[in-house]
Amino acid sequence: MDNVTFLSNGLEIAGHLHRPLGAPRGAIVVGHPGTAVKEQTAGEYARRLAEQGFVTLAFDAAYQGESAGLPRGLEDPAQRVEDIRAAVTFLGEERVGVLGICASGGYGLAATGSDPRIKAFAAVSLADISRQFRFGADGTQDPAVLQGLLAHDLDGSFPLFPADEEQARAGGPHVFEGWEYYRTPRGEHPRSAQTLTWNSVGRIAAFDAFRTAGLVADRPVLFVAGREAVTSWMSVEAFQNLNGPKEFHWVEGATHVDLYDRYVPQVTDRVAEFFAANL
Length: 279
Known about the structure:
It is a single chain. 37% of the residues lie in helices and 20% in strands. By secondary structure, it is an alpha/beta fold. Strands 1-2-4-3-5-6-9-10 form an eight-stranded mixed beta sheet, sandwiched between helices. Strand 3 (27-31), helix 1 (41-51) and strand 4 (55-59) form a beta-alpha-beta unit. The two termini are 22 Å apart. The chain has one domain: Alpha/Beta hydrolase fold, catalytic domain (Rossmann fold, 3-Layer(aba) Sandwich), CATH 3.40.50.1820. The chain is globular.
C-alpha cells in the first residue's frame, strides 16, 4: 500500500493506493461512507480487491480525515462527487470502475452519470444522503424534521452519534449499529467524523444522488444490500431509475452496517466478479 495525494477542486486529497501482485484486471476507486475514513471499511474493500487483481484507491473526502479543506467536518455532496472524479483522473487508467459504500454509493452513482470515464459502478449499502436527511434511514421520517434543521443557525457543528450506548439503543437498531461501528472497537478510528458542520445541511438538502441516473446509460451497475437493512429502499429506488445492464445482489440476514465489516469477504467476491466481467 502506498500513501498518495491528488487534487480535487484545488484541495489536497489523501489516499491509499493498493496494487495487485500480477498484471491488473482494472482499477477501482473506493469511496467511504459519509462519516468514515479510508482506514475503515473502504480500506478493507480496497485491500481485498487488490488481492483479487485490481489497482484500488481508497481516500478521505475533502474536509475530512487526512484530506485538506476548511471548515473541518463539512459534508459537501458536490465536492464529494468531484473527489471521485478527481480520483479517476489520478488513476489515469482506461479501465476504471467505482465502488461506493453507503453515502459514497449515492455520490458514486452521481459521479458515474456525469463522468463517462467510469466504465462500471458498484454500490454496497447505497444511501443517498439527501434522502436520508429528508426521510430518515427507513424512509418514514416526517419531512418537517429537515425543515427544522435548515432553520438552524449555520455556525458550529452538530454531533452525528448518541453520547453513549443507552442513548444509542434507545434510537433503534439502525442508530445503535452505526454507533457501535463508529464509537466502539468494532470499527472506530480517531479521524472518522464525529460531527458535521451546520452549513452542510443546506448543501445536502439541495443534492439528489439519483438525478443523473439516466446518464449512466449502458454502463453496467451492481447494487449489494443487506436483506435486513432499513436503508435498502434507497438501493431499490436507485436501481429502478437505471435503464442499462444492472444487477442486484441481496445478502441474506445482513443489515446496513453489517456490510461494512461482517460480510466483507463474500461481498468482495461478488464485487470482484462484477468488475472482472465489466472492466
